Amino acid sequence: MRRRVACDNRPALMKRLFSLGAVVVLALASIVLAQTSGQATLRTPAGDKPFTYVQQSGQTYVSASEVTAALGGTIAPDSNGYRITINNVVAAFGPDTRYGVVRDDLIEMPVPPIAIEGTPYVPWQFFQGLLVKTSSMDVAWDANAHVLLVRPLAQNVISVQPSVANVEGISKVVLTLSAAAEYTILKEQLAYVVRFKSPIQPPFAEQTVEDPSISKLSFAGNDLRIQLTAPDVVADAYKLENPPRIVLDFRKAAAPIPGQLPAMPGLKQQELPGIRTIVIDPGHGGKDVGASGADGLLEKDVTLAIARKLAASLAAKTGARIVLTRDEDAVVSLDQRTALANQYKADLFLSVHLNSSVGKVAKGSETYFLSVEASDELAKKAAETENASAAAAPVADPSASDLKLILWDLAQQTYLDESSRFAQAIQEEMNAATGVANRGVKQAPFKVLVGATMPAALVEVGFISNPDEEKKLTSDQYQTLLVDALTRAVQRYKTDYETRIGIVQPAPAAPAAPAPATATAPATRTVP
């Protein structure tokens, strides 16, 4: 039976979110400042309901409990913060932070929540963020009428103008839009379907195309169907701006996929079903050497060698595009590594490291996935050791690192079960390959996993502090053994995942070689 790692650690996470150690004491304390208060109206399609609001320092706060109840939800204390449930959607907020959490996303508020005589008040924008991110409703505040208006999101009709061109063997479909629009792309046996969330205005119902990869374009409802000439035609999709466009590049599966970073910051790959893009992260690099062995072996060199071999193996065997966070001996910040994975819309993230201990007898592999609360003291120590490397690379906002870690751990709840499955597959394959005692799957707050919006794991492939393992790790044959085990783990998870989501055919084929990214490449993550 597959070992399951407990994932429901929200109470402990919320406790950490609202305590953050001795650095800041966070408590929703009653406050008395210059303020005005009164009765306002929550106006929804179901009718009007009253609630209390407060004006303070130019900001409008609303009673969290009264508005939640008016929306048919519940609110309950959670450590020093509060948890709100509306239509089975759970959100949370706490004191002294402008960020709330809902599902796998953050809600940004202009100011932190407050408490008046023990009653929590939040900026009205908290409910706007909650509903916009989880429903088709929007929220607006009418300051003159004292009305909090809940209404359907504006459904503007989007004009779609498609064009098809073949450039150097790539069939390029460009959809020029009258305004930015949300959409999803679905893969079928002989077609790709672009499904718009808003109503669209198509220029035609159906059009035949003279192209090696595409035979026909047709509109029906909010869907654009791109009919393919053969089942082995695959696509990459991304967005362009000014004007808003969706671009789909079609090619035969055997053709290589360019691996360079997008040419402009606005270029984003659209998610498609299945495990299509895998990011491999060789730990450390540059002046951040990581752990070292008695004979001078450096962790940064071994992780890069293994990652390069793994990238080539996965590219050949999984049908996915492979991206390396570094392909040279260079410093890449911990934030940049997962930001790069997010920029590529990766479906899987694997960070490769070596372990080390004070003694020389520890051996074998360990696999981790993200949690604020370490599963044991050794896991905590391992995370602290790896996180220390952050000092070798620039950190955007050190003062916010603890809060960021906790919020992203909460956001990772969506991916925890998948990360657990992935980590378990890795650990089992590594144990089978090396024949050592099972050191297990563990949870720990590795900063390199913070912000990964996909299943993510970190594997310590061996102990560089063990002289026998240090010697093995220099061997090309032993590195290949580890790579084969990791490849099997990825293949196993990929097959399991794609079976569970109902994909009949494997994801499109991949390049013959990995697509490395340089350490100087731009990699940022924007939280909506």
Description:
The structure is a single chain. The protein has 528 residues and is α+β, with helices and mostly antiparallel strands. The chain folds into three domains: 10-152, Copper amine oxidase-like, N-terminal domain (Copper Amine Oxidase, Chain A, domain 1); 158-252, Immunoglobulin-like; 271-516, 3-Layer(aba) Sandwich (Aminopeptidase). The protein is built from ten helices and 30 strands. The protein has helices at residues 10-17, 64-70, 125-134, 299-317, 334-343, 377-387, 401-411, 413-434, 467-473, 476-500, and strands at residues 35-44, 47-56, 59-63, 74-78, 81-86, 89-93, 99-102, 105-108, 114-116, 119-123, 137-142, 147-152, 158-167, 170-177, 183-187, 191-196, 200-201, 206-208, 214-220, 223-228, 233-240, 245-252, 268-269, 277-282, 321-324, 348-355, 366-370, 441-444, 456-463, 515-516. The strands form five sheets. The chain has a seven-stranded mixed sheet. The chain has a seven-stranded mixed sheet with strand order 28-27-29-26-24-25-30, sandwiched between helices. A hairpin with a 2-residue loop joins strand 19 and strand 20. Helix 1 (10-17) packs antiparallel against helix 7 (401-411), helix 4 crosses helix 10 (476-500) and helix 8 (413-434) crosses helix 10. It is flat, with a radius of gyration of 25 Å. The relative contact order is 0.12. Residues 1-33, 254-271, 372-387, 389-412 and 504-528 have low confidence and may be disordered.
